[in-house]
C-alpha cells in the first residue's frame, strides 16, 4: 500500500462531533495524523475576534473541518482567518473540509447580483488553499469556481443504506425530485438503489414542477412527470431544507394524490424560521411535525443533541464522519482517488 503523508486534523469547536471520529478512523488506518487540534476564537468587547491555533502545524498537511452555521457571514470570516493563520504558521498545505458550502445557491449570473459562491471560492484560492471537500453542493458547477481539486461527495452514500434497510426490495416505491433541478439527483438515486438490490431497471421516479417567485417563496407546484403515487411509499430527494416551504407543499400534494407514506431525504437541515400567515406557526420544525412526513437528514450542520431528541418523532439524523474520513484517507495516499468514495456499492 502507498505510504501516507503526515497530516494534521484541525477543527472549529462546532465541528468536533465530526472531527473526532474522523481523526480516530484515520489513526486506526495507520495515517500519521498526530493529535486532534481545535481552533480557539478569542473575542474582543466590540465583537471583533481572532483565531488561534493551539499547537505548531509546521510542515504538515492540514485538513481544517469547519461549519458556517449558524451565522454564515461570521463563519466565512472565521474560515478566512484560520486559513491565513495556517499559511503564516508554515503549514505545508491547507485543505478545507466544508460539509455545507456557504452561499451555494448564489451560483449563477443574474442582473446586478453577485455570484457569491464564486467569490468565496476565489477567496479560498487566493489564500492558497490546496483542496476543498463538501457534501452535496447545491450546484455541480460550483466545483469549477475553484482552481484546485474540489471534491463534492454525495449524500446518497449515506442515505441509500438507510433506505435499503427500510425497503430491502424497494417494493411500492416512487422516488421524487422536489424540483427540476433535483432531477439528476433523484435519477441517480433510483438507478443506484435498483443496482444495489439487483433490479434490472431503476425504481420508478418522478419530478415536481414548481414556480419560485423569490428566495424561500414558491407560488405554484404540480406533479408534472412520473408514475402514480397512489398507495406508494414516496421518497423525496433534496439537497437542503431551508424554510421547508417546497418540501412541505410537495408532501401535502403527494398525500393528496394518495401516497401511503412520504419520506424526505435532505442533506443539509437548515430549518430556518419563517412565519406562516395562515397557521401562525413560525418554526419550520413545527410544520414538519404536523405534516405527517418523515424527514431524514445528515449531520452537516452542528446541532445540540437535545435538538434531535425533541424532534425524534419525525426527524432522523445520519452521521457524515466516515464518508469524509474515507475521502481524506484517499487524498493522503500517493495517487489516491477520491472519486469512488461516494459511489454506492452493491449488496450481496
List the helices and strands and how they pair.
Layout: E1 7-11, H1 16-28, E2 37-38, E3 40-43, E4 49-52, E5 61-65, H2 72-88, E6 93-97, H3 116-126, E7 131-135, E8 150-153, H4 156-166, E9 173-177, H5 183-197, E10 205-214, E11 217-225, E12 233-241, H6 245-256, E13 261-269, H7 284-291, E14 294-298, H8 305-310, E15 315-318, H9 321-332
Parallel strand pairs: 1-2, 1-5, 5-6, 6-7, 7-8, 9-10, 9-12, 12-13, 13-14, 14-15
Antiparallel strand pairs: 3-4, 10-11
Helix pairs in contact: 1-9, 4-5, 6-7
The number of strands is 15
H/E element sequence: EHEEEEHEHEEHEHEEEHEHEHEH
Largest sheet: 7 strands, mixed
CATH top level assignment of the largest domain = Alpha Beta
* CATH A-level architecture of the largest domain: 3-Layer(aba) Sandwich
Distance between the termini: 26 Å
CATH topology descriptor of the largest domain: Rossmann fold
Amino acid at each position: 500500500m502507498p505510504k501516507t503523508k503526515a497530516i494534521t486534523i484541525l477543527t472549529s469547536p462546532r465541528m468536533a462531533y465530526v472531527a473526532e471520529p474522523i481523526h480516530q478512523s484515520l489513526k486506526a488506518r495507520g495515517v500519521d495524523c498526530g493529535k486532534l487540534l481545535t481552533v480557539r476564537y478569542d473575542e474582543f468587547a466590540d465583537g471583533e475576534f481572532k483565531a488561534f491555533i493551539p499547537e505548531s502545524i509546521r510542515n504538515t498537511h492540514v485538513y481544517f473541518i469547519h461549519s458556517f452555521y449558524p451565522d454564515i457571514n461570521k463563519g466565512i470570516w472565521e474560515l478566512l482567518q484560520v486559513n491565513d493563520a495556517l499559511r503564516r504558521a508554515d503549514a505545508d498545505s491547507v485543505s478545507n473540509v466544508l460539509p455545507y458550502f456557504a452561499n451555494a445557491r448564489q451560483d449563477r449570473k443574474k442582473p446586478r447580483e453577485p455570484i457569491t459562491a464564486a467569490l468565496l471560492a476565489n477567496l479560498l484560492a487566493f489564500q492558497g488553499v490546496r483542496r476543498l471537500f463538501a457534501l452535496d453542493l447545491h450546484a455541480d458547477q460550483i466545483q469549477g469556481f475553484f482552481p484546485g481539486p474540489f471534491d463534492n461527495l454525495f449524500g446518497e452514500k449515506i442515505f441509500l443504506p438507510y433506505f435499503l434497510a427500510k425497503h430491502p426490495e424497494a417494493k411500492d416505491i416512487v422516488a421524487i425530485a422536489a424540483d427540476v433541478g433535483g432531477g439528476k439527483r433523484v435519477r441517480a438515486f433510483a438507478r443506484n438503489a435498483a443496482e444495489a438490490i439487483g433490479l434490472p431497471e431503476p425504481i420508478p421516479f418522478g419530478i415536481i414542477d414548481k414556480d419560485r417567485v423569490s428566495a424561500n417563496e414558491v407560488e405554484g407546484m404540480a406533479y408534472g412527470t412520473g408514475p402514480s403515487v397512489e398507495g406508494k411509499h414516496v421518497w423525496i430527494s433534496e439537497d437542503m431544507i431551508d424554510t421547508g416551504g417546497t418540501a412541505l407543499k410537495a408532501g401535502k400534494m403527494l398525500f393528496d394524490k394518495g401516497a401511503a407514506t412520504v419520506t424526505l431525504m435532505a442533506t443539509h437541515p437548515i430549518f430556518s424560521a419563517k412565519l406562516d400567515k395562515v397557521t401562525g406557526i413560525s418554526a419550520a420544525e413545527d410544520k414538519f411535525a404536523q405534516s405527517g412526513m418523515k424527514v431524514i437528514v445528515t449531520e452537516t450542520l452542528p446541532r445540540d443533541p437535545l435538538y434531535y431528541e425533541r424532534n425524534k418523532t419525525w426527524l432522523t439524523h445520519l452521521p457524515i464522519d466516515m464518508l469524509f474520513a474515507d475521502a481524506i484517507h484517499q487524498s493522503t495516499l500517493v495517487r489516491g482517488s477520491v472519486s469512488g468514495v461516494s459511489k454506492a456499492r452493491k449488496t450481496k
